[in-house]
Amino acid sequence: MPHRISWTGSLVVGLWLVTVAAAAETQANQAAAPWRLVRSANPGGGSDAISMTRSADISSDPDLAGLMLRCHRINPEMIVVVVTPFPPHAQPSVTISANGKEWHFEAELVPPGAEVLLPAAATDLASGPWQSAPQLALKISWQQRSINGVIPIDGLRGALTTLAANCPREGPTDSAHPN
Q1: The 3-state secondary structure of the chain, one letter per residue
Q2: Which domains are present in the chain?
Q3: In what order do the strands lie in the sheet with 49-55?
């Protein structure tokens, strides 16, 4: 007598396959978790703006929103996001501490001023020494204004890998960049 698989048996096998596939996808995504992939449509047409974002620790200054890694030309850009924009011509300095070391950067503002663009050297650190750090302690200063906080960066390697896999191949995704 031929062996028959009942509809119930097929459903169980199907659910098992879906569960295995979902577990594999979850495992792949855990490398970047809790970083979030954000894809924003370009209102002028062209490629979407792609970024990975991470929120600041809740104990941070309420004006520190988080960290963004965004596609830009060949290498990603690293941006600190604040809640209250800086004035248009401000040139904030940023001090970042991780793994017992400290780095100082002069940053640029991305209009309208709530994004503090770090120089390429910071992105190089994110691709290297900072990957072993559990968090970055930041201080953004300009005139009498100072914003302090902590951004957890566990999963940074996975976030950079996810970003690279999602960046468009044809060039810049951000026509609003000041350079």
Answers
A1: CCCCCCHHHHHHHHHHHHHHHHHHHHHHHHCCCCCEEEEECCCCCCCCEEEEEEECCCCCCCCEEEEEEECCCCCCEEEEEECCCCCCCCCCEEEEEECCEEEEEECEEECCCCEEECCHHHHHHHCCHHHHCCEEEEEEEECCEEEEEEEECCCHHHHHHHHHHHCCCCCCCCCCCCC
A2: 36-166 (2.60.40.1880)
A3: 36-40, 49-55, 64-70, 77-82, 115-117, 108-110
Tokens describing residue 19:
């569960």
How does pLDDT run across 127-140, given as a tens digit for each residue?
999 999 999 999 99
Tokens of 11: 């459903």
Q: Which amino acid is at 4?
A: R
For residue 99, the number of C-alpha atoms closer than 13 Å in the C-beta half-sphere is 11
Contact call for residues 67 and 130 (beta carbons, < 8 A): no
pTM for the whole structure: 0.76
Cis upstream peptide for 62 (omega within 30°): no
Distance between CA atoms of residues 175 and 163, nearest Å: 18
Predicted confidence (pLDDT) per residue in 94-153, tens digit: 999 999 999 999 999 999 999 999 999 999 999 999 999 999 999 999 999 999 999 999
